[in-house]
Amino acid sequence: MKKRGALQEPEIVRTTSAPNPVELPKDLPCPVDDGLCDHLTGMALPNLSLTSTTELACNLSSLQGRVVMYLYPMTGKPGVPLSEGWLQIPGAPGCTPQSCAFRDHADELRQYNCSVFGISTQSSEDQREAVARLHLPYELLSDAEFKLTEALRLPTFVVEGKRMIKRQTWIVEVGKIIKVFYPVFPPERNASDVIAWLDGKREAMCQS
Known about the structure:
By secondary structure, the chain is α/β, with parallel strands linked by helices. It has helices spanning 95-104, 106-111, 124-134, 147-151, 190-207; strands spanning 2-4, 49-52, 56-59, 66-71, 114-120, 139-142, 156-159, 162-165, 168-173, 176-181.
């Protein structure tokens, strides 16, 4: 590797064919706030490195400026079956639309001096496939060894023996998490919700 600067839900095991991962049905179940991310606001990013889709090691504690990190279960692939019942797991579906939304709002986020990273427990190989297929202009980071998951006690769930992070999004400033979006729903609106929060923060600072 090149250098650069938990709780679990019951396991769900079943398989079925999958729809287009970019499209979401209208009747997805809404996740509820179980309080498992309440401890994150105010926490510093740990001094650990995750492998990036650039094949570099990204040390989280060394990230500068304002950073948006969206953590997601897994991106699907066209033609690859999802687990049976995946669309009925609250908060599980929607990783591809969420990633595409952050792609489509990349210019707006840069106006707020934000860099963007996506994080999942998928392998870097799977993440590189997603970056290429979806034309993502930002890096994805692999927590396949659960280093970040364990360090910050992130909520997870298990499907077919695969442990995944529950969807959440952080805004980080000077290495500290200042805002947590959890649960995230609908996922395709998450990027817009982040921008709205940043806009409100900017307006509040201008009025103070």
